[in-house]
Amino acid sequence: MEGVVISLGVFAMIYGIVRLSLNKKEHLMLIQAGLDPATFEKNAKPTLSAAKLGMLLVAVGLGILLANIIVKFNWMDRDAAYFSLVFIFGGASLLVSYFLERKQLKENLPPDSKETKQE
After folding, report:
1. Residue ranges of the domains in the chain?
2. CA 101/CA 106 separation, integer angstroms
3. Interior CA angle at 13 toward 10 and 14, to 5°?
4. Helix, strand, coil % (nearest 5) of the chain?
C-alpha cells in the first residue's frame, strides 16, 4: 500500500512541475506576441461544480446514515435500504444543484437578453 501512495505522490509532483513550466512558457509566448495572458484564463464564468460535488457527497453520507438507522431498527432490508437511500438522497442533491445552477445562469445574463427570454 505504501508503494502505491509513494508512486502516486511522485507522479503528482512530476505532473505539477511539468504543468507549471508549460503554463509559464505559454504565458511568456503570449506576452511576446503582445497579448494579455489574463484574457485567456479559464475562470471567465463562475461554476457550481464544487458546490454540486459537496452537496452530492453530503447527501450520500446522509443516505448511508439514515440507512444505518433504518437497518438497526429492522424497518427495511439492509441492501434495499442502502441502495435506495443513497440514490434518493444523491439524486435529490443533484436536482437541487441543477436548479441552483439554472438560477445563477439567469442572474448572470445581461439585462437585454433577459427581456428577450421573457417575450
Report:
1. 1-44, 45-119
2. 9
3. 85
4. 80, 0, 20
Strands (E), 6-114: none
C-alpha cell at 29: 509566448
pLDDT in tens, 52-98: 888 999 999 999 999 999 999 999 999 999 999 999 999 999 999 88
Cell numbers placing 12: 503528482
pLDDT 10s digits, 87-115: 999 999 999 988 988 888 888 777 665 55
In three-state secondary structure terms, 107 is: helix
Cα angle value 63/68/72 (rounded, 5°): 150
Where do we find the cell 432490508? 77
Q: In 3-state terms, what secondary structure has residue 71?
A: helix
